[in-house]
Prior knowledge:
This protein is of the alpha+beta class. It has helices at residues 2-38, 163-166; strands at residues 54-55, 65-71, 78-85, 90-94, 100-103, 108-113, 118-122, 134-140, 145-155, 170-182, 187-188. Helix content is 22%, strand content 37%. Strands 1, 2, 3, 4, 5, 6, 7, 8, 9, 10 and 11 form an eleven-stranded mixed β-sheet that branches. It is globular, with a radius of gyration of 21 Å. Residues 18-24 and 36-40 have low confidence and may be disordered.
Amino acid sequence: MRTNLIIMLLALPALAAAQQVTQAEQVAQAAQNLSSAAGRRPEMIAFSTRDDGLLGSPMLYVGWQPGELLLTGNQHATTVPLKYDLYRQELRVRRPQGDSVLLPMNQVREFRLVEPARHFVNFPISPPDVPGTCAEVLVEGKNVQLVKYLHKEMTKPSTGNDSYTAHTPGALVEETQYFLRWPSDGRFS
């Protein structure tokens, strides 16, 4: 019994190393998938993840989520790690080098988060007074869809003369709007 336990303990580092290689290969494959899906190198935009003076995260989820990305003009989805910024309405894709690429939303047709399962579609037309064009499809019916538009807004502290309100940062608050969408004509209500 002890011999088996010792053998198993000695084999653990080798198994961990093999698993890391597999994960690295998966990330490299995801980057190749993204490049081939885009048909060219994705447009890169500089951005900063720091939001000085804000409480809360602008992201839908703080960490990277496994997802499937379908770009405009492509037929097949690409599996890549994703982050969706609800404050700026931007989608970020992690590259194998560890950095990320900011994809303009006009290049994104739809994306899915694998765990937890969520489906977002970038509609060509959005309802009035809705920031962004990307909505989560909650229910896909035969003649109608239930969609949810998510957005984070910054709320500023009340202005006052005391020292507390002078140094209180703003906070990001999630706002949600639900709509019915008729796919036949793209109309919302």
